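Hey,
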Amino acid sequence: MADHSTIEHVDASWNPVSGCRPCSPGCAHCFAARLTAEHDPGRDFREIRLHPDRLGIPATWRQHRRILVCSMGDLFHPEVPAAFIGRVFRAMAASPQHSYLVLSKHPGRMGPVLYGDTSGSGLRAGQAPPHVWLGTSIEDQTWTDRRLPLLLGSGWPGRFWVSAEPLLGPITLGAYLPFLAWAVGGGESGLDARGAHPAWVRSLRDQCLTHGLPWFWKQWGNRVHRSLLDDRSARQGIDEWVTMRSRAEGGRMLDGVEWTQIPPEIAGPHSPQLGLFTKYERTQ
């Protein structure tokens, strides 16, 4: 649980569910599993835990926050009961002063759970709290084409977003773009990180800009392509990729810009202003 989160695109994280299990290549170096091992070495991260005592936390935060739901787990993991997911959605409905970003690698559960008879979410078909956004994680084209159709076919009439982190290959969003309200991307953190090639990131950025979709690039992570470094740093590298001591050292800049676009519907009063289109054009 973290108010004032260090996760770049949100203000806070809220974890009514913790724990997860690997389900695709993006999970191989999971930051949540790594944090759990560092701070709670006796805990098995693969054990899915429910935390009903945390359901009321967002209601205690009076000022608007952009909240990432279950940064240390997956709300729609198959072992999370539908009834508990329903309680989480009722808790979000009870605190509309916030914007909630739900992110899952199991978008196929979203529709049946939220609109099924046993969910207890209080939602009927065609209903969605406007301050709750549903999203899925994608790491390459294969998982984009597996997960995004499930997300968009969930029956959710509200906003969708996508997180391309860790970005492990090129992605073409294509026909999915008109249905998305936000795209976030990032390289992988950790000393065993796999690098995000700048060409993949530029492609995603340009797809978003062309379609007017807000684009947020979080980080390059701990494995940075030499072309992104200054001449002095690049000369120190031997390989095409350079391992950084921390993700902060890797930075966030691409073509002279920190891509920090946030949709105005969830931005909040203290978020960076949009308007990077003009700034980007001036760097070309």
